[in-house]
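User: VWFA domain-containing protein. Structure?
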Amino acid sequence: MIALPNGPIEVVFSIDTTGSMSRILDEIQARLKDMITRLQADIPGIKFAVIAHGDYCDAEHFYVTKHVDFTDDLPKLCDFMNNVGGTGGGDVSECYELVLRMVRQNLSWTQTSQKVLIMIGDAYPHEPDYPLNTNKIDWKEEVQIYTQSDVHIYGVHVFDDLESEKFFRMISEQTFGEYIKMADFSHVCDVIMAICYRERGAEFLEGYEREVRSRFGLAALDVGLEGVFGALKRVDSKASNASLPTAIRTPPLSPLSSIDSMETDPQTVVPYVDPGSGSVPVSISLVDSTTFQSKTRKFPKSVKRVVTTARKPIPKPATVSAIVNPRLRRERVTVNNFRYSYLDWSVWKLAVQPKSGVATDSKKWINNYDFLVKKSLFRAGFSNTRYLYEFSVQTKPGGKRHVVYCDVINHKKLSSDWRDILNTDDLKDKVDNVMDSKCRIFVRRAVVSRAFRGNKKYSQLKSHVEELYDYVWSQTSTRDLNINGVDIA
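Assistant: Predicted structure:
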């Protein structure tokens, strides 16, 4: 059976919850209740499913996937989103291939519904030879199956990256969805709502566009939103409310259980089913490592990560020794997911800022040529107390702080040690570079607790932190980092 043009609408939105996407997760969590309430009022019978995912390497410390199956239960959806939490992510690519198969096999689609997948992310999928892709899922084959289905995929692409753009554009164009370039995190709920209205009908989309434009009064619509509505109103649109070509037919997707049900073994192989055979796959794949009760074993916690270099193809490992545990990029790890968040941290304090255009109190700031350095940030403490410091860079006032460096100090002169850190030969050039780009540097610190220290020597404490996290300003990091067009490293 195929989707009926005016049948009930079922919408899945999959969310990449790795560190770089944390603001997307925050935005959806804040506005989900209002968004779903509004859509349910305007589109009777609409149901939603949500998939949150990190990457395979997140199985041990976070999760690989969590999901809630199709429902119109608003409290259930809100409870899921509010408790899902972020993940770390390891390398550049993420497990989008896993999500594509999971949407196809692990959700309880209604056979005659209008089926929509909104995939939100900023990276690209793993290839079949990626060692942690144990089912050898080929995302290109998954997309090919979707081209013979009635699921429309809307690729919502965040950030500027050519390789990930190719992926999001391909999955959208080949499934009669639409590629959406999202320039501002705060637009994500407007994007989701606009897609839902487009699937309901052109007049619904036009009405919502008028409403959004009215927010801006006499001013022009935000450029990013202008692009979103422009893409969704394309004249060659093949949204679900239009009649589908006769060639677009698919066997019904395998109806599975909801969030409360049994999850399956990730090693289970999903047989390919010829769309013309009329049969439905019996076995399913891909464990959903949710916090809910599972009746079979979850994604194996013993998986190890693969050291990769950004934007380079992942080679097949020649030996077992090639599989190791890469560090998480510190700037991508959210506050709640930081391993040492249990320490008693100070608030982030502005420590260094550009000199130009800033009115400052000379009693509080030191004039250091082209930038200003705060004279004092922290109260004096006990001598011989060890502190863990973290430094972050903010590319624009009010923007996100990107953590770039850490150090552990055994205090003697407590008022100046953080400045001594930035004044080392390793960091001077980095500080000068971000100051030239009009960035600001923040500092925070925490007392090194007995639980953190354990049996480690003082000299080992910093390396202990850097075993888990890759700080881009550290000597152990070999990568570059560009945020909002600013070369931070």
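The longest helix spans residues 22-42. The chain has two domains: 1-326, 332-487.
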